[in-house]
Amino acid sequence: MIDSSLPQGEEKTRQVRAMFDTIAPRYEFVNKLMTFGLDVRWRRRAVSDLRLAKKSLVLDIAAGTGDFTRELTRQGHKAVATDLSFGMLDAGRQMPDRVQADASKLPFRTASFDGVTCGYALRNFTDLAGTFDEMARILRPGGRLSILEIAEPESGLLRTGFQIWFRKIVPFIGSILSDRRAYQYLPKSTAYLPTAHEIVKMLNASGFSAVNHRKVMGGLSQQFIATRAQ
Q1: How does DSSP classify residue 193?
Q2: CATH classification at residue 117
């Protein structure tokens, strides 16, 4: 059950946009500190897992300041960045093609992209089912999707360590280096996230086939890979 203190509907959209506008200037620095830079390797593999030809056109949804976008370019693709937060896009580097937009209402033609990436943003979307529908709509038949999202180890010392780090230390670090309210929201926002099984079902319902889910580094993160049905 979602915490009743968490915003819903249009209020969630408004608050998420304002929050990311606020933390944009120091977002990359704080993010790298909190993940020990491991997300760089995870994104590299996530782009590689698209299995697309060089110079493919890929939309990076919830691009933030451009981590995925730059990795797409590094691997030889043509990347377009889109994000709800103008502040995040404005703070980004090496993103010549960027468009501010709500992911559930993308301003792109149907079947106009070869691939889609999305990193650690599913819990921030107000309309997740609608966002998956839009991802499917703008992808050509046979186009590929690669999503990274936060996860939590299921058992053992790794789970305990993760809970202490993510729910206690991360908000503390964020409050010192950036915005206290934003980094208190971060651990709470996982309540918005459906289970992996539910996400797979949602992607199937939106028109994706061969949907695969895998745990990353013992469950510290998770990845969804899918193909737009023909």
Answers
A1: P
A2: 3.40.50.150
Question: Is 3 part of any domain?
Answer: no
Q: Is 6 left (phi over 0), alpha (psi -120 to 50) or beta?
A: beta
CA dist list (Å): 55 to 60, 130, 139: 15, 28, 15
DSSP assignment, residue 194?
Answer: P
Whether 4 is covered by a domain: the verdict is no
pLDDT tens across the length of the chain (230 residues): 456 679 999 999 999 999 999 999 988 888 888 788 888 999 999 999 999 999 999 999 999 999 999 999 999 999 999 999 999 999 998 999 999 999 999 999 999 999 999 999 999 999 999 999 999 999 999 999 999 999 988 878 778 887 887 888 888 888 887 888 888 888 899 999 999 999 999 999 999 999 999 999 888 899 999 999 98
The single-letter code of the amino acid at 206 is S
Residues 144-154: b if buried by 16+ CB within 10 A, e if exposed: bbbbbbbbbbe
